[in-house]
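W.,

You were right to be curious about this one. When I first looked at the sequence I had no strong expectations either way, so I just let the prediction run and decided to look at it fresh. Below is the sequence, 323 residues in total, followed by the output.
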Amino acid sequence: MKAIVQDRYGDTDTLEFRSIDQPVPAGDQVLVRVRAAGLHRGDWHVMTGLPYLLRVIGFGFSKPKVAVRGMNLAGEVEAVGPEVTRFRPGDAVFGWCDGAFAEYALAPESHLTAKPANVSFEQAAVVPISGFAALQALRDVGRIQAGQRVLIIGAAGAVGSFAVQLAKAFGATVTGVAGTGQLELVRSLGADDVIDYTRADVTDGTRHWDLILDTAGRRSLSALRRALTPTGTLVIVGGEGGSRLMGGFLRNLRAPLLSRFVSQRLGMLSSKPGQDDLQTLRELLEAGKLVPDVGPSYPLNEVPEAMRQLTEGHIRGKIVITV
């Protein structure tokens, strides 16, 4: 089978489109014929091995632990291991795995769920990792409540676009922050108000929100606190920028420490994929409360180009790899 394989950390020139052995499911594993795979910022971090913190926590010290890139997938069950009870060949599924940028991928049964009939393989493929982050940031760390005023910084991004829709589903009044060319997208996602970050500073202290999700990673804690109510909550998602050693995670680690000494709750997200949350996302997709905004699509052999487009940014919608 064909796959995108990486034998060393580096830029897109380390990604090779080549033939490898097709995996065989065992135990509780499901072999999926991949129809689409979602590309997100985490794939870039694993490709480059940056920040170095990722290598220390288990992604592989000198090279990627898993050679095939890709984490999100949607497709059809090709075969199942002897312990699988929920799926059979031909079922349409989506979920997360190691090695989604391939014609076939293995995933534990617990990493998959049935694809709703009202969404395409491309739409389903971009949901899991970013969807988990948005859901857990709002519900678990942010403790969102109906009627709250919520600010989503980076509202047009992979996590932010889901966060806008989920916050509305939770009953919040949502303000989305994005660039000039992405404001209409954020409005279409359901935001009650939008702010162009090139023209206004949301942290100037003139407006305040009960809950802020910062998915952009560039603002200081002191600036973000100015935009919170006195007892508001800040959730930092991701760790862009910063040093090669820690990336932006140093700011993330400072937030809960500072939170002990102020009236505001300052936290960071450590997202964990799980079957229960995958079911929640599936139900929201089925109900039409979560609509993935799919952007450019690339065939499997053009993953390096797709990755280059991801790093350049300013793309409307989520990049999807079609197989």
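Here's what jumped out at me. The longest strand covers residues 29-38. And, maybe more interesting for your project: The two ends are 11 Å apart (CA to CA).

Coffee later to discuss?

I.
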